[in-house]
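Inverse folding, one chain.
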């Protein structure tokens, strides 16, 4: 058997393995989309493809089942669907992915079977703000073709392991892959809480340059912070002792140089907890403790 034939058969095997956990999600007016078996009774898919209450999930064996929404997060474009029966084969995953790796995008947008396109990973980047108002820690770009109905389906490696979830709902111009470590973390929150908690301090800020003298006193490479312009009345920051005119330079030990840094520092695991907020006040570094609120 030629090397080319072996290579072709290896790709077919990867599609079959990844396809065993790829399902059809019929939850919108137009053509159906795809989903990934997250657990025996849970399907992870793209939030933007779930627009109806009467949801049907078709398994790789052709069996169709009703599903309900277990949780959704518009910011990351992820939704978790629940089946009444434990009939799914949960996806095998891998977070080992590098630029240049050969990958396949899988989809099951109709009853005719699994579909695939292939290419290489062209970029791994982030964090990035999405047009749905979220902030992705990381995303993967590939040269695979996102055929109609591929949103919610997996990106797999040549072993058929899921590297992430593909979606065209995060940007206006292209399809991206949410890496499996990010997608699965959010799916875990959706399974537990039905939503993703996000923290807030109750401040309005703008990035400002840190004066040279203050920069030297910090003894770290940080050139900017967030100047506090407004405080919510009795909000977390005001109750914690922040003042208008303070410059936030770190939250919970993470340096804060721009608004995205602040969003990253206020993840769900700090909601309701007291965190150290380091500020520049009168040119000197001070730390106050703020109990992080939950953004509704």
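Residues assigned per position:
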């Amino acid at each position: 058997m030629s090397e080319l034939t072996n290579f072709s058969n290896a790709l077919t095997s990867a599609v079959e393995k990844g396809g065993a956990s790829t399902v059809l999600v019929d939850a919108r007016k137009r053509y159906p989309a795809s989903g990934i078996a997250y657990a025996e009774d849970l399907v992870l898919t793209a939030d933007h493809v779930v627009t109806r209450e009467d949801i049907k999930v078709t398994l790789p064996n052709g069996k169709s089942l009703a599903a309900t929404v277990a949780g959704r997060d518009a910011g990351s474009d992820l939704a978790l669907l629940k089946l009444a029966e434990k009939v799914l084969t949960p996806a095998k995953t891998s977070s080992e992915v590098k630029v240049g790796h050969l990958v396949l995008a899988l989809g099951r947008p109709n009853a005719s079977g699994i579909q695939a396109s292939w290419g290489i990973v062209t970029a791994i980047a982030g964090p990035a703000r999405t047009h749905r108002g979220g902030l992705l820690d990381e995303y993967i770009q590939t040269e695979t073709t996102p055929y109609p109905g591929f949103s919610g389906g997996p990106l797999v490696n040549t072993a058929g392991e899921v590297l992430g979830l593909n979606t065209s709902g995060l940007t206006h111009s292209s399809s991206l892959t949410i890496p499996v470590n990010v997608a699965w973390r959010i799916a875990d929150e959706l399974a537990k809480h039905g939503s993703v908690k996000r923290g807030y301090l109750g401040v309005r800020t703008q990035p400002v340059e840190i004066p040279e003298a203050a920069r030297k006193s910090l003894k770290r490479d940080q050139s900017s912070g967030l100047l506090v312009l407004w405080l919510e009345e009795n909000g977390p920051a005001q109750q914690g002792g922040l003042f208008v005119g303070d410059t936030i330079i770190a939250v919970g030990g993470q340096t804060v140089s721009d608004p995205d840094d602040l969003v990253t520092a206020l993840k769900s695991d700090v909601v309701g907890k007291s965190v150290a907020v380091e500020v520049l006040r009168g040119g000197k570094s001070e730390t106050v403790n703020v109990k992080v609120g939950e953004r509704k």
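The mean pLDDT is 93. The radius of gyration is 22 Å.
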